[in-house]
Amino acid sequence: MNKNMKQRLIKGFNNVLNGSQCVSITRISVFSLISKIVYKILRIFIVGGFLFFGGINYLNYKIEVFKSYFNNMFNYYINLLKTILECIKQDILSKIGVFIFKKTFLKCSLVKEDSFISGLYDIILSSYFSLNLRQRRNDEICMLHNTSDNSQTMLLTKGLIEIRNILQQIKQNEKFALPNIVVIGSQSSGKSSVLEAIIGREFLPKGTDMVTRRPIELTLVHTFESDEYGEFPDLGQKKVSFDQIQKVIADLNYSVSENDYISDEPIRLNIFSPNVPDLTFIDLPGYIQIQSKDQPSSLKDRIVTLCKKYIQEPNIILAVSSADVDLANSVALHASREVDPHGIRTIGVVTKMDLVTPERGFSILKNMNYPLNLGYVGVISKFSQSFFDKNINVSDLIDKNEKEYFSNFCEFSNNDCFFGISTLKKKLIQILEDSMVQNLQNIYGIIRLELEQVSYQLKVEYNDRFLTQEVYMAELVDILKYRFKKFVENFGKSQIRLILKDILNQKALDLLAERYWLDQSIYNSQKMSFDDIYWKNKLDTSISSLTKLGIGSLVTGLLTSIISSEMEKISQENQFKVHPYVRQCIVQSTQNILKEKYHCTVEQVEKSIKPYKYEIDVDDDEWELGRKRSQEILKKEIKMCQDAFRKLKETIGSKKIEKIVNLIITGKNDYDSIECSKSLIEKGQQAIFLKNRENILNTRLKFVKSKKCKSVVNKYYCPEIFLEIVVKKLVDISVPFLDVELFSEFVHKFPRDLDNRLIYNLTSEQLEKIVNENFEIKKQIDLQKKKALLELALNKIESFMLSKKMYCFN
């Protein structure tokens, strides 16, 4: 009964457990279903909300973009019209020049694409020519006749030219270019005479042939000193007289080959004088109609191409024409029209005004038929040769001559006419200044951007490490001195002693082989007698041959050769390999110092060994040590013979070398049977020599080890030991003199001589050439120079702008 009760209780308990599990599972399933439904609903609401608000924001963004674009366009056109009306109202165009307005106006791509605005621009331009021309002329007349501000204007122009010269020093400076005055004209137009009249000196070559074959970049610098001279910066010539200037220009022009005839490589000339304004000119070869028979057929087209290259924006064109030639046929005006169709940056110069009637001259200068915005200036620049014969500036004489001529005719009293070299100078100063100023603001921004890029490049590539040519050269010399120091540390008395002992030991072995080892009686020691005069003389002769060998010159020459070889190795290392001049200095300095000390060292060594030429004393201790050393020398020589024979066998083959040796020994000439060449026979003979020498050395080594060579008394039996001791004595006494007289002197003088060659006596041209041989260093220094020039140019531009504002304010 108890058993049944237990089973029922267990069964009931299990039923209860099963029921509770079912209830639990049911509850969990319902809860999971509800949570999934809630999750899906929430996800739909969240995604929907994101899409809804995102769409509203995107739509709002598009509306704002459209409003902004519409407002910008509306404001642009309103501001543009206001600006145009204000310009017309205040007559700003006449003050800043149409070419400034045009360049600024056309920079906007919107104006280029808008036909309405482009048409409006053309109307404004035409209105300027028709309405404001007379007012502009009146302003120019006032400017030209107003001398109160000349000094201030000259200072401003000088500042601009100084900025231009700084920018010209920057390599690849096309984007920084400031305007120059480019002089063009036919060969007979008189453009060279115009330039000489402006300067007041004759300096350009003369001749019937084409004498201007290269562009001449002429910079005039007004000075307060009375001296007048020129400089050729590319040639390094300073303070050149005007006679010499003419000769140098002629030589540079005629250096162009006859096949090329003209070159686009410019001649740069700076002229300093108190009688010139601060101006920059580029004088170009004159246009030709047809080429002569000795000129290239393509010369005419090449001159046109060269001139067209220089008369591009922003340069000012000085178109020189002759008054006795119709302006319709003026080559200069025709060329300028191609690049400057509106005549905005062209000034006409009419020469030879005295060759036409005043009426004709007046009509040309009025510029009604071929109008130029900058107008025409009439000059009489061609004078008699006597004007230039005097060694003085003739600017005042030229001015006086022109005034006398033009004052005789009432036609030239009209304010519409400009004439005279002095008037031309003033116009050019003002035109060049205006042109430079209007380009300056744009260039200022370009320079700032370029400076940022260069600074970044220096920081990234070189970690802003400042390096100059002098610093690089000093570092290079320091590296060279360090390598020299290492050589000296590893090469001293002990190394010299080992080298000398090896060479003298070899000389001693050669004497032994020649005088002893071929003598068969030496191998029969039992028949040798101590009192035998033969062996005594033989040893004395050998010692004399060794001591009188010319030890001084031998060891000095050997040491000199070793030092020269080591210094040559140093010069071939990577740091110096790219610098031929530095390598040359190392070698020459080494040779000069060693050559200087050579004879003195030879003499001292020879004096030191002189006692050994007559008598050499050897005690028992020296003999014992010499005996041990001689054994080592013989063993070393035996090993060398064995190594050489083994290498010979490996090269030819042991069997073949054996056959050749047998044929040579037996005296048979049957070399054809084993196909022996002459070189193989020579190698066989060499093998026989090595084996014989090895046998002799082994025999002598055994004898030196024997009891008969134990005492110095038996020195005639053992010449190997005695000669080894002699070598030791010669080396010991030579080394100190070699060290003091030669090596130590070299160690002392070489660094100092190197400083003189590569530091103190090095010219700036040589230094620059050496530095430029290392591309990476050249690149770094060029970047540093560029950065310095850009910073200097920025400072100059800022100073100029400030001076300009103060001048305008006053």
TrEMBL record:
Family indicated by similarity: Belongs to the TRAFAC class dynamin-like GTPase superfamily. Dynamin/Fzo/YdjA family.
Domain GED: 712-805
Example of a GO cellular component annotation carried by this entry: mitochondrial crista
Catalytic activity: GTP + H2O = GDP + phosphate + H(+)
InterPro entries xrefs: Dynamin, Dynamin_GTPase, Dynamin_GTPase_CS, Dynamin_N, Dynamin_stalk, G_DYNAMIN_dom, GED_dom, LIS_MGM1
Name of the protein described by the UniProt record: dynamin GTPase
Superkingdom field: Eukaryota
Record keyword Magnesium present: no
Keyword Transmembrane helix: yes
Class in the EC hierarchy, top level: hydrolase
GO annotation (BP), single: mitochondrial outer membrane fusion
Assigned keywords, A-Z: GTP-binding, Hydrolase, Membrane, Nucleotide-binding, Transmembrane, Transmembrane helix
Transmembrane segments: 37-59
